[in-house]
């Protein structure tokens, strides 16, 4: 092999780079290597159309294609996010909004604790004695904001998950 390795860049080299980038994307997800793979594949086709390109020109075109594809790809994904069946994924506290629970401990000076399913949560709301039914109205960080539950309004149905604790309000 005499000469510089850059002298051996051709369309097959770019397509192999493209496949390798896609494999890396599969192993290390993040939607960056995917766009680099797409750019390498496109560069392979560019080289087929213009076989006399120097190695420096090929790398420059690849770099420009990579930046453009990453920027365009991220902008597209920002405008068209991946839809999921569980919109509360990674927002565990959001699933408790509108659910009714019975206080095991009183809320004193606007703060208290509540056992929800298998976890202890800090709660904030008006002072109430233990045994009062409360409804989670919103979440602020890791604190559930509660209010006295209206007995005439049925609690929000609970999605299937771990078995409920006995402190949970009446079933819907």
What is the fold's blueprint, element by element?
Blueprint: H1 11-27, H2 33-49, H3 55-79, E1 100-102, E2 111-116, E3 119-124, E4 133-140, E5 143-148
Parallel strand pairs: 3-5
Antiparallel strand pairs: 1-4, 2-3, 4-5
Q: Would you write up a description of this structure?
A:
This protein is of the alpha+beta class. The chain folds into two domains: about 5-80, no CATH class; about 90-150, Beta Barrel (OB fold (Dihydrolipoamide Acetyltransferase, E2P)), CATH 2.40.50. It has three helices and five strands. The chain has a five-stranded mixed sheet, with no helix packed on it.
Can you count the beta strands? 5
C-alpha Rg, in Å? 28 Å
| Share of helix, binned | 25-40%
Mean pLDDT: 84
Number of domains: 2
Structural class: alpha+beta
Between the first and last Cα atoms, what is the distance in angstroms? 76 Å
- How much strand content do the residues show? 15-25%
- Tertiary shape: rod-shaped
Characteristic terms for this protein:
172 residues; alpha+beta; OB fold (Dihydrolipoamide Acetyltransferase, E2P); 2 domains; 5-stranded mixed β-sheet; 3 helices; 5 strands
Compact summary:
The protein folds into two domains: 5-79, no CATH class; 92-148, Nucleic acid-binding proteins (OB fold (Dihydrolipoamide Acetyltransferase, E2P), Beta Barrel), CATH 2.40.50.140. Helices cover 34% and strands 17% of the residues.
